[in-house]
Queue: 2 jobs
Job 1
Amino acid sequence: MDYDALVAQLFERHRSVQTAGFSGDAYKPGLEAMEAYAAFLGHPERRFRSIHVAGTNGKGSVCSMLAAALAGLPAGSAGRGLRAGLYTSPHLLDFRERMKVIESPASTGFREIPREAVQEFLENYDREGLTFFEVTTGMAFRWFADEQVDVAVIETGLGGRLDSTNIITPELSVITSIGLDHCALLGNTRAEIAAEKAGIFKPGVPALVWGRDPETQPVFEASAERIGAPLYFAEDFEIPEMPELDLSGPCQDLNFRTVCAALEILSTRRQTQSADNQRLPSIACPQNTAGISRKWLTDNVLTLLSNAGRITGFMGRWQILRQQPLTICDIGHNPPALKENFARLASLRKPLLVVYGVMADKDVDSISHLLPADAKYFLVAPDTPRAMSAQDLALKLKNLDCTVSGTVAQGVRDAMEQARADSIVYIGGSTYVVSEALKCFEGL
């Protein structure tokens, strides 16, 4: 069976949240099945070091920047750069986007898992009774081990405490910003959601949180104290001025600060390790200086952070698809992300056309007040059983200027036809909308 057929079978045999949502046999919280699967695979997750990243918004950008920075640092006497694994989800165009190895970023950049490796794994290591994400996580861990990565940056799929990735013991646990998302599964308050994210903390492993917040800080402090994890807040670190980033989405200043703090912690942690246990990178430091801006973040590392999107092939986050008219797509879909996105669009003070679609379980009332009243909307339903129909979405947004376009491709065509040179076209609301829109722009 070829690659495409095997991947199609993977989606059929193991229900995924992309087709079934976070319910039923697509999402099974708990680590027992994943622990057993890892044992069946020979515990590949124990053969490389890792950094674990959870959060509501920003974790994909943080993972991408961390992997890019780590890949640019020397790995030691071997004469090569660090080999960094990167595991993120969901994919937008190809399943293989979920698993990458980043090395020699100045030249080759990233490599996705080869089709042959996917085929070999699914033919020999697929098992009944697992979720799509458990199989995918096992595949990533085994490929990283086979590739002998020095360190892998691992993004959680959902939450943290019960997420399949939480079988690792990382060098550092990182939590990005916390917002209300997947409340039915994680909790109805930011404090409850923070408690689920804090489930990635491990005894003796440093834990880094993006910032101090009256609602979530006590949760993180209590969780860290209970588990015995040294706790840090990114806002307490001195960092250099943020350069221009090719990951240009909202709140990247917070993500940049979090990455800088993570690199500082990793540097300090390495200095306290025994000489025979120093597989994490070091970087030459100017003499007689102190502080993160002069110790870790040399011009070279800042350049890597500036180009993290290109280096890691990160897509769908405030991604500019066309300059004329300015066309932007972003997978942010929860209230905090949408609030930031539309505030940024409003600051540009140009006519706004929005290609927009959501999943059927989306609480549209909770986000409708965030949608700009002066924008023109082209409502769509991506090609997934989970999608809300464009007609149903129009009923919920009847106070806005909406056109029912139906498909994403039609919505993109309608928006581009009506956009003037001074307009902005924004495509979002769901990962699935962005995924289909990217295909519309391929080759343009």
Job 2
Amino acid sequence: MADDRRRAKLAKEMEAVGARVQGSVFEAYLTHKELAEVVRRTQKILDGKEDSLRVYMLCAECRKKIRIYGRGKTSEPPGAVVL
């Protein structure tokens, strides 16, 4: 089981770059360079024998196919204006 302090540190790192959408699930729009930096920082926190960080990359076409049932919404791209 993951240590709660590590989990809290990891969540803080992720909240700095993205939106928490559920428990330990975050959405973020990152460049390849930003993603590499996030991975580098989180690897310093994670215990590879107990913890994991999963990154699922979605292309623009895949994002259009996201379906949410119940509460919630997808994160908007940076600079997007929703009226």
